[in-house]
Amino acid sequence: MQVSVSSHREPEPLSLDAFERLGLFVLRLEDAPEEAELSVALVDVEEMAHLNEQYRGIQGPTDVLSFGCDDPCPTGGDEPILLGDVIISPDVAIKQAAELGTTIEAELNLLLVHGCLHLLGYDHESDEDAAVMQSREQVVLDAYAAE
Fold first, then answer.
1. CB 3.0-4.6 Å disulfide test: which of 14, 26, 92, 134 passes with 63?
2. What is the C-alpha separation between 139 and 4, in angstroms, rounded?
3. Which residue intervals of 57-126 are DSSP H helices?
């Protein structure tokens, strides 16, 4: 399994290693194939707003976006299985953490787990699906905290 983390923010005050560790933890806990590959990008508010409008038709930034690969299946041999990209706006996460009375680390961890679960087939289109996804997020975060 491979998790690649990049930052489009200069300078990046956050530890990219922490995102990589949590991303790998989620993939392992969810029994992703060993060949799975995930990309995580940290972007500024302007880039997130642009992506949100371009791909969702919604103006303004959001906290996390997930872009699954069109065909995330084995390509044969030693080729990686590309799951997709998780895009996070730490600036939006910081604002949300303050509003929710949680830590920035907890909010960023939740966003990364949320984005990864989307790429692994979870969604929140219905209330029932949202409850399942939210429950799974908590299980993953609790397991990560216990490690």
1. 92
2. 24
3. 90-100, 104-119
Task: Name residue, tokens 């990008």.
Answer: 41
What's the residue count for the chain?
147
In the chain, where are the structural domains located? 2-146
On the question of a cis peptide bond just before residue 11, with omega within 30 degrees of 0, the verdict is yes
Task: Please tell me the distance from the alpha carbon of residue 146 to that of residue 126, in angstroms, as a whole number.
Answer: 30
Instruction: Give just the sign of the alpha carbon dihedral 111, 40, 105, 96.
Output: negative
2-146: CATH number: 3.40.390.30
Q: Which residue has the higher pLDDT, 5 or 82?
A: 5
Identify the three-state secondary structure at position 9. Answer: coil
